[in-house]
Amino acid sequence: MKATVENIKEIIAEAEVLGDANEMKNDIALSEQGIDSLDVVNVYLLIEEKFDVQIPDEDLAQVTTIDAIVEYVNNKLV
Amino acid sequence: MLGIKNIASYLPQKKVSNYDKKEKFELDDDFIENKIGVKFHCVKEDDEKASDLCVKAFENLVKKTNIDKGTIDCCIVVTQNPDFNIPHTSAIVHGKLELSQECACFDISLGCSGYIYGLSNILSFMKSNGLKNGLLFTSDPYSEIIDHDDKNTDLIFGDGASVTYISENPLYVPKDFSFGTNGKAYKEILCDDKLYMNGRAVFNFTATTIPKHIQKLLVKNNLEDSDIDKYILHQGSKYIVDTIRKRLKVDESKVPFDMYEYGNTISSAVPIILEKELNSNHKRLLLSAYGIGLSWGSTILEKN
What we know:
Chain A is an all-alpha fold. In chain A, 47% of the residues lie in helices and 0% in strands.
C-alpha cells in the first residue's frame, strides 16, 4: 500500500489528536497545527505499523509535514 | 496459603507543581492534565533516603493492621536509588524497624516493573524457605537523579514508597505471572549521574509490547476481558496508560489512573493503586508494570 495524503490524515485521526485531521494543511508542520510532542510520536508509530516501515530518530526532521511524510514513506516502500 | 494481606504507602507532603513549569517548558493545561497526567509531584526532604520512605510506609501499615514485628521473617526492598551502594537498603530498613535477627533481607534492583518481580520473588522465597510473614517494600526516590532542565523527566516522576504485607489468609493471591526483557534497548532509560529517558522509544515499547504481553497472559489463563474487574497499569504517563487501554480495547472505567497529585513513583505506582482497590470486592485483578531495562511483568491476582 502506498502512502497518500488521505491515508496519512486517516492515521492522524486514528491517533485522536485535537482538531479535524481533514482540515489540516499538507505543507505545514504538524507541530504548528496543534499536534503536540506526544501525539506526533503516536502518529509516527501508527505510520510505522500501517506501512511496515521504520522512521528512526535521525530522520524525524524529514517527516514534519503531511506531504513530507507521504514522500518519506513512499521512498521507503520503493 | 501465602498472598497479599495488606498494603500501605507513603507519599511525601512536599509537592512541586507542574503548572509552575508551564513557561519554562512551553506547556498548556491540557498537556499537563490529559497527556502527562501529573499536576503535582511529591518530593522527599533532602535528608531523607529510600529507607526513610520505607519506614514511613510501614508506619502507615501499622495504623491499618496489627503486625507483630517479631514475626517478620522476610524483608525485601525494590529500589535503584538505594541509601548507599553498600549495604543493601533492606538491611537498613531492618535495623530502623528493629526487626528480628531471624529475618531474611535482600534488595531487588529493578525500576518500574519491580513490584511484579518483587511479588513473585517474595512469595517464591517465602514458600521455598517456610517463611510466614514478609514485607515487600518499593522505594525509588527519583528526585535525587532528576535533571530539572529535562522536560522528558522533570514533569513526570514523584517520590513515594509502598509496603506489601505477605502472610497467611491473604486478601489476594497471584494466579500467574509473566515477565519479559529487551536488554538491547537498555540505553533508552539510563542514569549515569542524571536520569535520561528517550520518550519516543519508551512510548513505542509500551504501546507495542505491553498490550500483546497482557493479551498473551489472559489467553494462557483462559481468561477474557470480562473476567478482569480492574487492570492496574504502571502509571508511566496518562498518555501511555490511555494508549495501552485503547489498544487492549478495555473500558476506561476498568483502568484506574491516579497519579495527578503525586507523579510516577516507579515501582510504587502499581501498589499505591492496588492499596486503594484492595478492599473492593473485585474477584480478579490484572497488574502490569513496564519500563527501565527495558523490563516488564504482569500478574493476575484472585480474591482469596
